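Predicting holo structure, magnesium ion bound.
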Amino acid sequence: MGNRLRVAPLLKEIASVFAGRELYLVGGAVRDLLLGRESADWDLATSARPEEVMKLFKRVIPTGIKHGTVTVRYKGKSLEVTTFRTESAYSDGRRPDEVQYAAAIEEDLSRRDFTMNSAAVKLPEGTLIDPFDGRGDIKRRIIRSVGRAEERFAEDGLRPMRAVRFAAQLGFELEGDTLAAIPGALSTTARVAAERIRDELDKTIASFNPRRGLLLMEETGLLRLVLPELAACRGIEQRGRHRFDVLDHALLSCDYAAKQDFSREVRMAALFHDIGKPAVRRLDEAGDQWTFYNHERESSALTRGIMQRLKYPNAFTDRVLRLVEEHMFHYEENWKDGAVRRFIMRAGEDLLPELFQLRLADNAGTSGAEPDPALLLPLRRRVDAVLSRSRVLSLKDLALNGDDLMLNGVSPGKHVGIILRELLEAAVDDPALNNREKLLEIAGNINKRYQ
Ligand code: ATP
Ligand code: MG
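Done. C-alpha coordinates:
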Protein backbone atom coordinates (compact mmCIF):
# COMPACT_ATOMS: atom_id res chain seq x y z
CA MET A 1 0.00 0.00 0.00
CA GLY A 2 1.36 3.44 -0.88
CA ASN A 3 0.78 6.60 1.08
CA ARG A 4 -2.26 7.45 -0.96
CA LEU A 5 -5.65 6.00 -0.05
CA ARG A 6 -8.73 5.88 -2.15
CA VAL A 7 -11.15 8.53 -0.94
CA ALA A 8 -14.92 8.48 -1.46
CA PRO A 9 -16.04 10.97 -4.14
CA LEU A 10 -18.42 12.61 -1.68
CA LEU A 11 -15.48 13.42 0.61
CA LYS A 12 -13.65 15.08 -2.26
CA GLU A 13 -16.75 17.13 -2.95
CA ILE A 14 -16.91 18.18 0.69
CA ALA A 15 -13.23 19.10 0.60
CA SER A 16 -13.94 21.48 -2.27
CA VAL A 17 -16.44 23.34 -0.06
CA PHE A 18 -13.62 23.91 2.43
CA ALA A 19 -11.71 25.61 -0.40
CA GLY A 20 -8.22 26.29 0.77
CA ARG A 21 -8.80 25.21 4.40
CA GLU A 22 -6.92 22.14 5.55
CA LEU A 23 -9.25 19.16 5.88
CA TYR A 24 -8.56 15.60 7.01
CA LEU A 25 -10.53 12.46 7.54
CA VAL A 26 -9.65 11.26 11.06
CA GLY A 27 -10.53 8.76 13.78
CA GLY A 28 -12.53 5.61 13.25
CA ALA A 29 -13.12 6.26 9.55
CA VAL A 30 -9.39 6.13 8.81
CA ARG A 31 -9.07 3.00 10.94
CA ASP A 32 -11.88 1.44 8.92
CA LEU A 33 -10.28 2.54 5.66
CA LEU A 34 -7.01 0.88 6.66
CA LEU A 35 -8.93 -2.24 7.65
CA GLY A 36 -10.67 -2.22 4.28
CA ARG A 37 -14.07 -1.64 5.88
CA GLU A 38 -16.84 0.80 5.14
CA SER A 39 -17.53 3.28 7.90
CA ALA A 40 -20.90 4.56 8.90
CA ASP A 41 -19.86 8.02 9.98
CA TRP A 42 -17.09 10.38 9.08
CA ASP A 43 -15.08 12.46 11.50
CA LEU A 44 -13.26 15.38 9.91
CA ALA A 45 -10.54 17.64 11.30
CA THR A 46 -9.94 21.09 9.88
CA SER A 47 -7.90 24.23 10.39
CA ALA A 48 -11.10 26.25 9.94
CA ARG A 49 -12.72 27.56 13.12
CA PRO A 50 -16.23 26.34 13.98
CA GLU A 51 -17.74 29.74 13.11
CA GLU A 52 -16.25 29.49 9.63
CA VAL A 53 -17.49 25.93 9.13
CA MET A 54 -20.96 27.07 10.08
CA LYS A 55 -20.87 29.60 7.26
CA LEU A 56 -19.71 27.07 4.67
CA PHE A 57 -22.70 24.72 4.93
CA LYS A 58 -26.45 25.20 4.97
CA ARG A 59 -27.26 22.60 7.57
CA VAL A 60 -24.91 22.78 10.54
CA ILE A 61 -25.70 21.92 14.13
CA PRO A 62 -23.33 23.22 16.83
CA THR A 63 -23.33 19.84 18.63
CA GLY A 64 -20.10 20.25 20.56
CA ILE A 65 -19.18 23.84 19.93
CA LYS A 66 -17.39 24.00 23.33
CA HIS A 67 -14.99 21.35 22.05
CA GLY A 68 -14.77 22.91 18.60
CA THR A 69 -17.13 20.38 17.00
CA VAL A 70 -20.05 21.02 14.68
CA THR A 71 -22.19 18.46 12.88
CA VAL A 72 -22.72 19.04 9.18
CA ARG A 73 -25.55 17.41 7.27
CA TYR A 74 -24.59 16.99 3.65
CA LYS A 75 -26.34 14.88 1.02
CA GLY A 76 -27.76 12.47 3.59
CA LYS A 77 -24.46 12.09 5.46
CA SER A 78 -23.74 13.36 8.92
CA LEU A 79 -20.22 14.70 9.41
CA GLU A 80 -18.55 15.62 12.68
CA VAL A 81 -16.21 18.49 11.90
CA THR A 82 -13.73 19.43 14.60
CA THR A 83 -11.19 22.22 14.49
CA PHE A 84 -7.61 20.99 15.15
CA ARG A 85 -7.28 20.63 18.89
CA THR A 86 -4.52 20.22 21.33
CA GLU A 87 -4.76 18.08 24.47
CA SER A 88 -6.31 20.20 27.18
CA ALA A 89 -6.32 19.38 30.87
CA TYR A 90 -8.99 17.20 32.47
CA SER A 91 -8.75 18.84 35.89
CA ASP A 92 -11.66 16.85 37.30
CA GLY A 93 -10.82 13.64 35.44
CA ARG A 94 -14.30 13.74 33.94
CA ARG A 95 -14.36 16.00 30.93
CA PRO A 96 -11.79 18.19 29.21
CA ASP A 97 -11.61 21.82 30.29
CA GLU A 98 -11.67 24.68 27.78
CA VAL A 99 -10.79 23.71 24.25
CA GLN A 100 -7.48 24.94 22.81
CA TYR A 101 -6.99 24.97 19.08
CA ALA A 102 -3.85 23.53 17.53
CA ALA A 103 -1.94 24.98 14.61
CA ALA A 104 -1.38 21.74 12.72
CA ILE A 105 -2.90 18.30 12.18
CA GLU A 106 0.13 16.56 13.75
CA GLU A 107 -0.57 18.23 17.07
CA ASP A 108 -4.23 17.24 16.82
CA LEU A 109 -3.28 13.63 16.14
CA SER A 110 -0.93 13.48 19.13
CA ARG A 111 -3.82 14.06 21.57
CA ARG A 112 -5.77 11.08 20.26
CA ASP A 113 -6.06 7.92 22.32
CA PHE A 114 -4.62 5.00 20.36
CA THR A 115 -2.26 4.75 17.42
CA MET A 116 -4.94 3.05 15.30
CA ASN A 117 -7.11 6.15 15.86
CA SER A 118 -4.38 8.70 15.26
CA ALA A 119 -3.87 8.56 11.50
CA ALA A 120 -5.37 11.13 9.17
CA VAL A 121 -6.13 11.19 5.46
CA LYS A 122 -5.57 14.53 3.79
CA LEU A 123 -8.47 15.61 1.62
CA PRO A 124 -8.98 15.67 -1.25
CA GLU A 125 -5.65 14.00 -2.18
CA GLY A 126 -5.88 10.95 0.10
CA THR A 127 -2.37 11.24 1.53
CA LEU A 128 -1.96 9.25 4.74
CA ILE A 129 -0.54 11.22 7.70
CA ASP A 130 0.47 8.60 10.23
CA PRO A 131 3.03 9.90 12.75
CA PHE A 132 2.46 7.04 15.27
CA ASP A 133 2.43 4.13 12.83
CA GLY A 134 -1.25 3.44 13.27
CA ARG A 135 -1.23 1.50 10.03
CA GLY A 136 1.47 -0.82 11.37
CA ASP A 137 -0.44 -1.44 14.59
CA ILE A 138 -3.64 -2.09 12.68
CA LYS A 139 -1.75 -4.62 10.58
CA ARG A 140 -0.39 -6.20 13.78
CA ARG A 141 -3.89 -5.95 15.31
CA ILE A 142 -2.61 -4.08 18.34
CA ILE A 143 -4.20 -1.37 20.48
CA ARG A 144 -1.40 0.91 21.68
CA SER A 145 -1.58 4.25 23.46
CA VAL A 146 -0.24 7.29 21.68
CA GLY A 147 2.69 8.17 23.96
CA ARG A 148 3.04 6.83 27.49
CA ALA A 149 -0.08 4.92 28.49
CA GLU A 150 0.08 5.94 32.18
CA GLU A 151 0.09 9.61 31.22
CA ARG A 152 -2.63 9.27 28.63
CA PHE A 153 -4.88 7.31 31.00
CA ALA A 154 -4.23 9.83 33.79
CA GLU A 155 -5.47 12.58 31.44
CA ASP A 156 -8.72 10.78 30.70
CA GLY A 157 -9.88 7.78 32.70
CA LEU A 158 -12.31 6.76 29.95
CA ARG A 159 -9.46 5.57 27.73
CA PRO A 160 -9.03 2.19 29.50
CA MET A 161 -12.73 1.52 28.85
CA ARG A 162 -12.24 2.51 25.22
CA ALA A 163 -9.26 0.16 24.95
CA VAL A 164 -11.27 -2.88 26.04
CA ARG A 165 -14.24 -1.78 23.94
CA PHE A 166 -12.06 -1.68 20.83
CA ALA A 167 -10.55 -5.07 21.76
CA ALA A 168 -14.09 -6.49 21.78
CA GLN A 169 -15.14 -4.75 18.57
CA LEU A 170 -12.02 -5.42 16.54
CA GLY A 171 -10.63 -8.58 18.15
CA PHE A 172 -7.28 -6.80 18.61
CA GLU A 173 -4.79 -7.37 21.47
CA LEU A 174 -3.84 -4.68 23.98
CA GLU A 175 -0.14 -3.86 23.66
CA GLY A 176 1.78 -4.79 26.85
CA ASP A 177 2.43 -1.34 28.32
CA THR A 178 -1.08 -0.19 27.44
CA LEU A 179 -2.59 -3.20 29.21
CA ALA A 180 -0.25 -2.88 32.18
CA ALA A 181 -1.19 0.78 32.69
CA ILE A 182 -4.88 0.14 33.25
CA PRO A 183 -4.81 -1.04 36.90
CA GLY A 184 -2.95 2.10 37.90
CA ALA A 185 -5.52 4.30 36.16
CA LEU A 186 -8.60 2.92 37.92
CA SER A 187 -8.86 5.81 40.38
CA THR A 188 -9.05 8.18 37.39
CA THR A 189 -11.63 5.99 35.66
CA ALA A 190 -13.67 6.05 38.86
CA ARG A 191 -14.21 9.80 38.37
CA VAL A 192 -15.42 9.57 34.78
CA ALA A 193 -19.06 10.55 34.14
CA ALA A 194 -21.35 7.51 34.27
CA GLU A 195 -22.83 8.21 30.83
CA ARG A 196 -19.41 7.99 29.17
CA ILE A 197 -18.64 4.67 30.89
CA ARG A 198 -22.07 3.39 29.89
CA ASP A 199 -21.54 4.23 26.24
CA GLU A 200 -18.30 2.21 26.13
CA LEU A 201 -19.82 -0.71 28.04
CA ASP A 202 -22.74 -0.58 25.65
CA LYS A 203 -20.48 -0.76 22.61
CA THR A 204 -18.64 -3.68 24.21
CA ILE A 205 -21.88 -5.57 24.71
CA ALA A 206 -23.14 -4.59 21.25
CA SER A 207 -19.95 -6.00 19.68
CA PHE A 208 -19.46 -9.46 18.25
CA ASN A 209 -17.10 -10.39 21.11
CA PRO A 210 -18.45 -9.01 24.40
CA ARG A 211 -16.80 -11.80 26.38
CA ARG A 212 -13.39 -10.76 25.16
CA GLY A 213 -13.89 -7.18 26.37
CA LEU A 214 -15.42 -8.25 29.67
CA LEU A 215 -12.58 -10.69 30.41
CA LEU A 216 -10.13 -7.87 29.78
CA MET A 217 -12.14 -5.73 32.15
CA GLU A 218 -11.84 -8.45 34.75
CA GLU A 219 -8.11 -8.92 34.20
CA THR A 220 -7.42 -5.20 34.60
CA GLY A 221 -9.76 -4.46 37.50
CA LEU A 222 -12.22 -2.44 35.40
CA LEU A 223 -14.94 -5.02 36.04
CA ARG A 224 -14.65 -4.68 39.82
CA LEU A 225 -14.85 -0.92 39.40
CA VAL A 226 -17.69 -0.65 36.89
CA LEU A 227 -19.69 -3.83 37.59
CA PRO A 228 -18.66 -5.07 41.05
CA GLU A 229 -21.84 -7.18 41.24
CA LEU A 230 -20.69 -9.14 38.20
CA ALA A 231 -17.09 -9.39 39.37
CA ALA A 232 -18.42 -11.00 42.56
CA CYS A 233 -19.74 -13.90 40.47
CA ARG A 234 -16.20 -15.18 39.89
CA GLY A 235 -15.60 -18.41 41.77
CA ILE A 236 -19.28 -18.94 42.60
CA GLU A 237 -19.33 -22.52 41.46
CA GLN A 238 -22.58 -24.37 40.93
CA ARG A 239 -21.73 -27.97 41.61
CA GLY A 240 -24.33 -30.36 40.27
CA ARG A 241 -25.86 -27.81 37.93
CA HIS A 242 -23.20 -26.19 35.83
CA ARG A 243 -19.69 -26.77 34.54
CA PHE A 244 -19.00 -23.06 34.85
CA ASP A 245 -18.91 -20.59 37.71
CA VAL A 246 -21.53 -17.84 37.61
CA LEU A 247 -19.26 -15.30 35.89
CA ASP A 248 -18.11 -17.61 33.10
CA HIS A 249 -21.71 -18.70 32.62
CA ALA A 250 -22.81 -15.06 32.28
CA LEU A 251 -20.02 -14.23 29.83
CA LEU A 252 -20.73 -17.28 27.67
CA SER A 253 -24.46 -16.52 27.65
CA CYS A 254 -23.87 -12.91 26.65
CA ASP A 255 -21.37 -13.97 23.99
CA TYR A 256 -23.83 -16.42 22.49
CA ALA A 257 -26.49 -13.69 22.36
CA ALA A 258 -23.98 -11.49 20.52
CA LYS A 259 -23.02 -14.24 18.07
CA GLN A 260 -26.71 -14.75 17.29
CA ASP A 261 -27.13 -10.99 16.86
CA PHE A 262 -29.82 -10.86 19.55
CA SER A 263 -30.95 -7.43 20.75
CA ARG A 264 -29.06 -5.34 23.30
CA GLU A 265 -31.77 -6.09 25.84
CA VAL A 266 -31.22 -9.82 25.49
CA ARG A 267 -27.42 -9.46 25.66
CA MET A 268 -27.71 -7.34 28.77
CA ALA A 269 -30.16 -9.74 30.40
CA ALA A 270 -27.90 -12.66 29.47
CA LEU A 271 -25.04 -10.91 31.24
CA PHE A 272 -27.02 -10.08 34.40
CA HIS A 273 -29.64 -12.84 34.70
CA ASP A 274 -27.81 -14.78 37.42
CA ILE A 275 -26.05 -11.88 39.11
CA GLY A 276 -28.14 -12.46 42.26
CA LYS A 277 -26.81 -15.97 42.72
CA PRO A 278 -23.90 -15.18 45.07
CA ALA A 279 -26.35 -13.60 47.54
CA VAL A 280 -28.89 -16.44 47.62
CA ARG A 281 -26.62 -19.48 47.35
CA ARG A 282 -27.30 -22.12 50.03
CA LEU A 283 -26.36 -25.79 50.39
CA ASP A 284 -29.27 -28.17 50.04
CA GLU A 285 -30.40 -30.39 52.93
CA ALA A 286 -28.08 -33.21 51.99
CA GLY A 287 -25.25 -30.72 52.01
CA ASP A 288 -23.82 -31.64 48.63
CA GLN A 289 -25.56 -29.37 46.11
CA TRP A 290 -25.92 -25.62 45.88
CA THR A 291 -29.37 -24.09 45.61
CA PHE A 292 -30.22 -20.62 44.29
CA TYR A 293 -33.89 -20.17 45.18
CA ASN A 294 -35.46 -16.95 43.93
CA HIS A 295 -32.21 -15.75 42.48
CA GLU A 296 -34.09 -14.11 39.60
CA ARG A 297 -35.60 -11.63 42.02
CA GLU A 298 -32.24 -10.78 43.54
CA SER A 299 -30.72 -10.59 40.04
CA SER A 300 -33.37 -8.15 38.95
CA ALA A 301 -32.84 -5.95 42.02
CA LEU A 302 -29.08 -5.84 41.42
CA THR A 303 -29.56 -5.22 37.69
CA ARG A 304 -31.85 -2.30 38.45
CA GLY A 305 -29.16 -0.81 40.68
CA ILE A 306 -26.46 -1.23 38.03
CA MET A 307 -28.53 0.23 35.21
CA GLN A 308 -29.68 3.21 37.26
CA ARG A 309 -26.11 3.90 38.36
CA LEU A 310 -24.98 3.81 34.73
CA LYS A 311 -27.91 6.03 33.72
CA TYR A 312 -29.48 3.70 31.20
CA PRO A 313 -32.81 5.00 29.87
CA ASN A 314 -35.78 3.73 31.91
CA ALA A 315 -37.64 2.04 29.05
CA PHE A 316 -34.56 0.00 28.13
CA THR A 317 -33.88 -0.88 31.77
CA ASP A 318 -37.48 -2.01 32.27
CA ARG A 319 -37.28 -4.49 29.41
CA VAL A 320 -33.99 -5.92 30.67
CA LEU A 321 -35.47 -6.25 34.16
CA ARG A 322 -38.53 -8.08 32.87
CA LEU A 323 -36.30 -10.52 30.99
CA VAL A 324 -34.18 -11.14 34.09
CA GLU A 325 -37.27 -11.60 36.29
CA GLU A 326 -38.92 -14.06 33.91
CA HIS A 327 -35.86 -16.02 32.80
CA MET A 328 -36.66 -19.05 35.01
CA PHE A 329 -39.95 -19.83 33.21
CA HIS A 330 -40.69 -23.49 32.69
CA TYR A 331 -43.28 -25.36 30.69
CA GLU A 332 -44.89 -28.78 30.81
CA GLU A 333 -46.89 -30.39 28.04
CA ASN A 334 -49.78 -31.18 30.38
CA TRP A 335 -50.47 -27.50 31.08
CA LYS A 336 -54.05 -26.47 30.40
CA ASP A 337 -54.61 -23.67 27.90
CA GLY A 338 -55.33 -21.34 30.79
CA ALA A 339 -51.89 -22.00 32.23
CA VAL A 340 -50.29 -21.20 28.88
CA ARG A 341 -52.32 -17.98 28.68
CA ARG A 342 -51.24 -17.06 32.22
CA PHE A 343 -47.62 -17.63 31.25
CA ILE A 344 -48.06 -15.29 28.27
CA MET A 345 -49.79 -12.69 30.45
CA ARG A 346 -47.10 -12.82 33.07
CA ALA A 347 -44.16 -12.47 30.70
CA GLY A 348 -45.97 -10.14 28.32
CA GLU A 349 -46.67 -11.21 24.76
CA ASP A 350 -44.31 -8.55 23.38
CA LEU A 351 -41.44 -9.95 25.44
CA LEU A 352 -41.79 -13.62 24.47
CA PRO A 353 -39.46 -13.68 21.45
CA GLU A 354 -36.67 -12.12 23.49
CA LEU A 355 -37.42 -14.28 26.51
CA PHE A 356 -37.01 -17.36 24.32
CA GLN A 357 -33.75 -15.98 22.95
CA LEU A 358 -32.55 -15.41 26.50
CA ARG A 359 -33.32 -19.05 27.29
CA LEU A 360 -31.23 -20.18 24.31
CA ALA A 361 -28.36 -17.97 25.48
CA ASP A 362 -28.72 -19.26 29.06
CA ASN A 363 -28.63 -22.79 27.74
CA ALA A 364 -25.55 -22.16 25.60
CA GLY A 365 -23.84 -20.63 28.63
CA THR A 366 -24.62 -23.69 30.71
CA SER A 367 -23.42 -26.34 28.29
CA GLY A 368 -20.74 -24.33 26.54
CA ALA A 369 -22.20 -25.67 23.31
CA GLU A 370 -24.84 -24.84 20.74
CA PRO A 371 -28.31 -25.23 22.31
CA ASP A 372 -30.66 -27.88 20.98
CA PRO A 373 -32.68 -26.16 18.23
CA ALA A 374 -35.78 -28.06 19.38
CA LEU A 375 -35.42 -26.75 22.92
CA LEU A 376 -38.33 -24.31 22.87
CA LEU A 377 -40.32 -25.81 20.05
CA PRO A 378 -43.10 -27.40 22.16
CA LEU A 379 -43.74 -24.19 24.09
CA ARG A 380 -43.59 -21.97 20.99
CA ARG A 381 -46.09 -24.22 19.20
CA ARG A 382 -48.35 -24.25 22.19
CA VAL A 383 -48.25 -20.45 22.55
CA ASP A 384 -49.15 -20.01 18.90
CA ALA A 385 -51.97 -22.54 19.15
CA VAL A 386 -53.43 -21.03 22.31
CA LEU A 387 -53.26 -17.49 20.95
CA SER A 388 -54.97 -18.55 17.75
CA ARG A 389 -57.85 -19.92 19.83
CA SER A 390 -58.27 -16.91 22.09
CA ARG A 391 -56.55 -13.63 22.76
CA VAL A 392 -58.11 -12.94 26.15
CA LEU A 393 -55.00 -11.73 27.94
CA SER A 394 -55.95 -8.51 29.65
CA LEU A 395 -58.94 -6.56 30.94
CA LYS A 396 -59.28 -4.76 27.64
CA ASP A 397 -59.90 -8.10 25.92
CA LEU A 398 -62.98 -8.77 28.06
CA ALA A 399 -66.38 -8.59 26.36
CA LEU A 400 -67.53 -6.01 28.93
CA ASN A 401 -66.06 -3.20 31.00
CA GLY A 402 -66.58 -1.46 34.33
CA ASP A 403 -69.40 0.71 32.99
CA ASP A 404 -71.34 -2.41 31.97
CA LEU A 405 -70.98 -3.75 35.50
CA MET A 406 -72.20 -0.52 37.08
CA LEU A 407 -75.20 -0.40 34.74
CA ASN A 408 -76.03 -3.90 35.95
CA GLY A 409 -76.16 -3.49 39.67
CA VAL A 410 -72.55 -3.34 40.78
CA SER A 411 -72.07 -0.25 42.90
CA PRO A 412 -69.17 2.02 41.91
CA GLY A 413 -66.00 1.50 43.90
CA LYS A 414 -63.19 -0.95 44.28
CA HIS A 415 -65.51 -3.95 43.73
CA VAL A 416 -65.70 -3.06 40.06
CA GLY A 417 -61.99 -3.69 39.63
CA ILE A 418 -62.03 -6.82 41.76
CA ILE A 419 -64.92 -8.30 39.81
CA LEU A 420 -63.33 -7.43 36.47
CA ARG A 421 -60.16 -9.27 37.48
CA GLU A 422 -62.14 -12.31 38.56
CA LEU A 423 -63.97 -12.26 35.22
CA LEU A 424 -60.64 -12.12 33.43
CA GLU A 425 -59.41 -15.15 35.38
CA ALA A 426 -62.53 -17.06 34.38
CA ALA A 427 -62.25 -16.08 30.71
CA VAL A 428 -58.56 -16.96 30.64
CA ASP A 429 -59.41 -20.46 31.82
CA ASP A 430 -62.40 -20.76 29.51
CA PRO A 431 -62.59 -18.29 26.61
CA ALA A 432 -66.10 -19.53 25.83
CA LEU A 433 -67.23 -17.44 28.81
CA ASN A 434 -66.05 -14.24 27.18
CA ASN A 435 -69.39 -12.82 26.05
CA ARG A 436 -71.53 -10.16 27.70
CA GLU A 437 -74.31 -12.43 28.88
CA LYS A 438 -72.14 -15.06 30.50
CA LEU A 439 -69.86 -12.50 32.08
CA LEU A 440 -72.80 -10.51 33.51
CA GLU A 441 -74.21 -13.70 34.98
CA ILE A 442 -70.90 -14.55 36.66
CA ALA A 443 -70.53 -10.95 37.78
CA GLY A 444 -73.97 -11.12 39.40
CA ASN A 445 -72.91 -14.15 41.41
CA ILE A 446 -69.65 -12.60 42.50
CA ASN A 447 -71.44 -9.37 43.38
CA LYS A 448 -73.70 -11.20 45.83
CA ARG A 449 -70.63 -11.90 47.94
CA TYR A 450 -70.12 -8.18 48.34
CA GLN A 451 -73.74 -7.27 49.22
P1 ATP B 1 -16.57 4.56 16.71
O1 ATP B 1 -17.13 5.81 16.08
O2 ATP B 1 -16.69 3.35 15.91
O3 ATP B 1 -17.04 4.39 18.10
P2 ATP B 1 -14.14 6.08 16.76
O4 ATP B 1 -12.68 5.71 16.79
O5 ATP B 1 -14.58 6.94 15.63
O6 ATP B 1 -14.97 4.74 16.83
P3 ATP B 1 -15.16 8.11 18.46
O7 ATP B 1 -15.60 8.02 19.89
O8 ATP B 1 -16.16 8.45 17.42
O9 ATP B 1 -14.43 6.74 18.13
O10 ATP B 1 -13.97 9.18 18.43
C1 ATP B 1 -13.41 9.65 17.21
C2 ATP B 1 -11.91 9.82 17.40
O11 ATP B 1 -11.64 10.80 18.40
C3 ATP B 1 -11.19 8.57 17.86
O12 ATP B 1 -10.84 7.74 16.78
C4 ATP B 1 -9.96 9.17 18.53
O13 ATP B 1 -9.01 9.57 17.58
C5 ATP B 1 -10.52 10.42 19.16
N1 ATP B 1 -10.98 10.19 20.56
C6 ATP B 1 -12.23 9.87 20.95
N2 ATP B 1 -12.31 9.75 22.27
C7 ATP B 1 -11.08 10.02 22.76
C8 ATP B 1 -10.53 10.09 24.05
N3 ATP B 1 -11.27 9.83 25.15
N4 ATP B 1 -9.22 10.41 24.17
C9 ATP B 1 -8.48 10.67 23.07
N5 ATP B 1 -8.93 10.62 21.82
C10 ATP B 1 -10.23 10.31 21.64
MG1 MG C 1 -16.57 7.79 15.32
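The mean pLDDT is 93.
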